[in-house]
Amino acid sequence: MRVGVLCSGGDSPGMNAAIRGATLRGVDVHGFEMVGFVDGWRGFRDGETVPLDRPAVRGLSGVGGVFLGTSRVAPFSSVLDEVDFDAFRARVADYGLDAFMLIGGNGTQTVASILHDHGVQVIGLPKTIDNDLGGTDYTFGFDTAVSIASEAIDRLRTTGDSHRRCMVLEVMGRDAGWIALHAGMAGGAQAILVPEFPESLEQVCEWVTSVRDRGRSAMVVVAEGFRLAGADHAVTRDGLDGFGRPRLGGVAEQLAPLIEAGTGIETRATVLGHVQRGGAPTAFDRVLATRTGIAAADAVLRGEWGTLAGLRGDRIELVPLAEAVGRLKTVPEDRYAEVRLNFG
Questions:
Q1: Does residue 160 have a known ligand-binding role?
Q2: pTM given for the model
Q3: Which helix (H) or strand (E) element contains residue 295?
Q4: Any binding-site annotation on 244?
Q5: Is 338 annotated as contributing to ligand binding?
Q6: CATH of 142-278 among 3.40.50.150, 3.40.50.460, 3.30.70.890, 3.40.50.720
Q7: What amino acid positions are annotated as catalytic residues?
């Protein structure tokens, strides 16, 4: 069995651990031959590969990023209705591949589901710091991003308290506010603003003022995709991202002066940005990613194609890709409502 490993989309802490887990189980236990594609679909297109074996993945569990590289290069050069899947399968055959392991988020696993529907044998491994992929309770990379954001909250709170300032921290989250929700709860933020539930400026200012009236300094955590009630769209920067979407970012910088004007409290903004993706993964993400890689290799051995190795409770279970993709896993109303009661 010759298996190709490919990473796509943004980098996420734990990807190296997942590759290591899949390789050790696949090569040393099941006797697979495994090959990694450099920079995702770009490597598949250009024929750039590296062999995967025990020496290739030595010491990778605690290393951030992804040593194979990743990219947002699309697997198909045309719209889906016009894709020549016969040519794609012929390209797979040229590599001598029997199956793929695809490591990525919603976009990557949607591609995995499409490939499965067109006769390509594939297993999905769910990674994204946004935790917005269905079929799994947590994606590897999320816990690390939350830990980094929580540390930032702790640091910002001390300087905010020293100057009696309101601090606004912007974290990642285009359509789903999981990082903001979990980091805000962990850091004791007095307001958490997520894309799923717009809030009015008046309400945000009321929360910040109530904190000041208690003799404290407010901490506001906002996801990059949040928009104020009544706004048509989220705050964007110039240019497009790798998927051709407007680049989000800057909502904290827009919100801070509005809060200051509405409350009279000096307010400063911090955009955490790509710091959330960087550095070593947490122990939780290392274990989750390793278990995911092992489960994916076992699924290849059993021929359980078209599935995603997702975390359900404390078990790694194989979930049909069709059930995991198609809609984002967003913060449900009850999860937001339970913390919103404590704002201010």
A1: no
A2: 0.93
A3: helix 283-302
A4: no
A5: no
A6: 3.40.50.460
A7: 130
